[in-house]
Amino acid sequence: MLFMPELAEVEYYRRQWTVPDNCRVERVALHAAKRLFRDVDTDRLCSGLVGQTMTLSATHGKQMYFRFGDQYWIGVHLGMTGKLRMEGAGFLPGKHDHLVLYCEGGHTLVFSDPRMFGRVRFAVGNSEPDWIAGLPPEVLSEGFTYERMSEFLERRGKAPIKAVLLMQEMFPGIGNWMADEILWRARIAPGTRAGQIGSRYRRELYARIKEVCEDAMAVIAPDWATPPDRWLFNHRWQDGGTCPQTGALLVREEIGGRTTCWSPKWQRYRGRG
Q1: Spatial distance between the Cα atoms of 18 and 24, rounded to a whole number of angstroms
Q2: pTM of the full predicted structure?
Q3: Which element (helix H / strand E) includes 251?
Q4: Under a CB-based contact definition with an 8 Å cutoff, are residues 261 and 252 in contact?
Q5: What residues form DSSP beta bridges with 121?
Q6: C-alpha angle 61-62-65 in degrees, rounded to nearest 5
Q7: What pLDDT, in 10s, does the model give residues 136-156?
Q8: pLDDT, tens digit (0-9, with 9 covering 90-100), for 168-205
Q9: Considering only Cβ atoms within 10 Å of each terminal Cβ, which end of the chain, N or C, has fewer?
């Protein structure tokens, strides 16, 4: 089953590129002609990283980025099938291993992507490149406020709330399963128009967005652990899956162009009033 890695899965993969301090890059191998490297000066990437150590490793929503030395930046978007992993000394890249960083001590950092829906970015400079600096506040940051969210719901008022939660300009890192989990916990039907959700349930939605993101980071990010059965997560994938709260059959339908799983007996259309 393929799905776009979301907030916690991206953090899990970032952690796979953990190397000891002062571990220098010795050699870079990549498939320069592949579309993952569009707009990238691959020659400069290869020459610039050699001799550098990783000085920063971070995620933002569905993206991750790494700094080497003081001025070399690599950004990675995993797409549908991208993965980061660590290999040992003497590793020989396969046809899907599109970026390989050979580091001291036999640490080999690999980005693989069989279907090549992902992307690699590269920049040189002492400050964050535009593709980092221009990102919206993260959901678990202080910048993600109830007021900001509420104003966004008004601007996207005619769209179903499920579709709105997938808009990365406001909810970076939230994807299909997280949006379903949030709406299920908030007891809001996914087809409810965003602008029609009243203040009570907007507050509930805001709280559940924070809660689901925190839970995902605590459970999935460290070691890809399976969430507990009290979440919707484990039941939404199953044919004949049932709601953990009511025991009623879950419904799957397309909302906002995405397959959505929800519980009509538990979730309601929450209009104003």
Answers
A1: 12
A2: 0.94
A3: strand 251-255
A4: yes
A5: 75
A6: 85
A7: 999 999 999 999 999 999 999
A8: 999 999 999 999 999 999 999 999 999 999 999 999 99
A9: N
